[in-house]
Amino acid sequence: MAQVTIRINGFTYLVGCEDGQEPHLEKMAAEIDQRITSIKAIGGQSGESRLLMLAALLLADELHDTRKASAEAAPATIEKPSKAASEKHAKLRRLAARAEEIAADLSDA
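Below the sequence we write its predicted structure tokens.
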């Protein structure tokens, strides 16, 4: 297990992660640090725990909006099949119809 030292709001934290995940963890820490900087810029200078809580709420709100948008977009994708899928369905219908014709011819013989 790897350990990474991250810096958020001027404080350093030693955090463990899976090997190879260090750059990802550093990017996440930078995102949180950026949120805290934004909060402080609008006058939200508070204690460390409050700043971290507000940053977490901002990220949770963004995640909520992303999930909601994804859920709303999913039915449109399902309702409107791609051109390739439509062509495959049409081909299957033609093959099924041809198979029925062949079966009918065999039963007549």
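The chain has a mean pLDDT of 83.
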